[in-house]
Amino acid sequence: MFRLTVLYGHPEDTAEFDRYYTGVHAPLVAKVQGLKGLTVTKFTEGPRGEQPPYYQMAAMYAETREEFNAIMATPAGKAVGSDVRNFATGGATLIYGEEEKFL
User: What is the model's pTM?
Assistant: First the structure.
């Protein structure tokens, strides 16, 4: 399974980031036909109370990288990519990879 991971840096305003992500961005992702899933992880303090290096992680899934690229080339996919600059004031790092489950 192909996975795009987006690591969001700490935003200037966490409440606004959360509101926008939940109310605007995630619904845009939901409109993208062909994606196999979206997961979101909100990071918490580390074992010694330290701030994590990222605020949130999102992962979008497709069967293959080629399929993912085709999905994201659609108008709905392009809208998702363009929307990131509207809320990711802490930056966004994209990482592509193949996911394999062991358990």
Answer: 0.94
